[in-house]
Every structure is written in structure tokens, then in C-alpha cells.
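Much of the work behind modern protein science is quiet bookkeeping, done one molecule at a time. Below is the pair of lines this work produces for a single protein:

***
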Amino acid sequence: MNRTTHDRGRDRDEEGRARSARPRDGLGRPLPYGAEGVPRQPEGVVRDPGATLREAQRLLDAGMPFHAHEVFEDAWKSGPDAERDLWQGLAQLAVGLTHAARGNAAGGARLLRRGADRLTAVGAGAGAVEGGASGAGAPEAGVSETRASERGSSGPESVPRSGPYGIDLGGLVSWARELAGRAEGGGAEGSVTVDAVAEAPRLRRDVS
């Protein structure tokens, strides 16, 4: 394979794929070469739902929502199609928190609301995937996003408190929308940069 001079200088992983070797902080921001950064999450790890939630919660509690989003990304890429919206919604919340903690209030609020809409739609079909079962009534890929778009981000909603795998859907949706409003200036002090550790959500009701 021919490579340009620029391409030869790019960082690559062991399989030759382009991947920056620059160290990064807990929010995924690149640091100068030689700086001590936070270890990156391995890609493509297949975990069961419980392990996914435990690892993501650990990372959220440590103030590393960017890394938590990568755990959720592994879940939706390796899991069944019926659960794709669930894991994508959780990933959007983690990325939204990441941007809000970086000071990108508008981007963070937008992603937090997208994730909340997606999880609200998942909640509408939570009975079909409760406990991880994927029957005929389970939400298909893209269905929940359509429902969320038709409904809009405003208006009364009823989100089941407990979703698949004990995930606190109702609590997460409320947390995301409240944080979105606060981050982009819903209060008297205008937009704020949030503390990722202080704002870390609880993913499941049965895990303290």
C-alpha cells in the first residue's frame, strides 16, 4: 500500500489503523506528547449488560464520561439490534456530559436531550426488553428515534422508572434534561461548565 509522506507520520495501532497516540485526559481531550494521560479504553470489548453498566458507572464516577461512552459504544456495536437505541441513548448522555464538562454548553445540552429522547422512546417499549428479552414487541433499530422526533423534546412524558437490566430510565431522562438546561444557561448565572464527577448519573437504581 502506498503512503504519502504525511501518512507515514501518522500514529497507528498494531494493525496499521490510524489512531492518535497522543495522551488524553479524563474528558478525552488530547494532551501534549510526553504528558501523563489517562489510559484509553480498549476497543471492541464484548461485555454482558451487567459488566457494561458496572464499567461505565466506574468511569462516570471517576469523572471520565468520554471513556464511559466508549463502553456503551462497544455494547451497541456488539449487542442485539433490539437494544441498539438503549446503548446509543446512554452513549449520547455520556458524550453530552463530556461536552458540558469541557465547557461546550450548547453541544452538551443538545446531546443530553437527544439521549433523553432516545431513552424515553426505549421506555415506551421497555416491557418488550425487560430483563434483556428481545421479543416481537422489542423496539426495532431507528423506531425509537422516529418516535422521539414525532413527539419532540417538550411536552408531558411518562418514562418507566426501571428499564432493561434495572437501568433507571426515568431518573436518567430527568437528570439529562435538568443538566442540559442548567449547562446552557437555564439559571440566572448563564451557561456553566459542569463538574463531571459531581454530575455523574446513577445508571441503575440497585447500584449505589
In short: Confidence is low (pLDDT under 50) at residues 1-8, 127-156. Helices lie at 5-8, 49-61, 65-78, 84-102, 105-124, 126-129, 143-151, 169-183. The chain is about 45% helix and 0% strand. The first helix runs from residue 5 to 8.
